[in-house]
Design goal:
The protein has helices spanning 4-11, 24-34, 54-63, 90-100, 119-144, and strands at 18-19, 38-42, 48-53, 104-109, 112-118. The protein has 145 residues and is of the alpha+beta class. The protein has a three-stranded mixed sheet.
């Protein structure tokens, strides 16, 4: 079974974040530049205060045709953030993402943000694990025949 710490170690712990005061435009520019779908929002203590995703932007635009791109991202972010620890299993992450209909999970070690995993990371880990199992079963069957 694979764990969040395994995914973070393979993918790397580098992540990008913004502050509560960062503009929506700057947040979107960062996401576009880094080819990511969400950024964690950190408060003045460096703790997670929210998350801003492509979905948040879409919903904000849908509600307000005159959405100000210079307004702080805190006005459109999701403030109820589901987080995980490095010790969580990938299966748990997949279940949580499915149940809560979310695509990104910040990874906290205590109260410190140490990374973020996406649904793509989870799917990749599950496929890799299944491929390893299939390969092992094929070798077992070949060896026992």
């Amino acid at each position: 079974m694979e764990f969040v710490r395994d995914v973070i170690s393979k993918k790397g712990s580098k992540f990008w974040s913004v502050t509560l005061e960062t503009s929506v435009k700057s947040s979107l520019d960062l996401m576009a530049d880094k080819n990511i779908g969400a950024v964690p929002i950190l408060d003045t203590k460096g703790e997670i205060a929210g998350i801003f995703s492509e979905r948040d932007y879409t919903r904000a635009c849908s509600k307000d045709n005159n959405l100000c791109l210079e307004c702080p991202v805190s006005e459109v972010m999701t403030s109820r953030v589901f987080c995980i620890s490095p010790k969580q299993s990938i299966d748990y992450c997949m279940a949580l993402m499915t149940e809560k209909r979310i695509r990104h999970l910040p990874v906290l070690d205590g109260s410190t943000l140490v990374g973020i995993i996406s649904i793509g990371d989870v799917v990749k880990a599950v496929i890799t694990e299944k491929n390893i199992l299939i390969d092992q079963l094929e070798h077992y069957i070949e060896g026992s025949l």
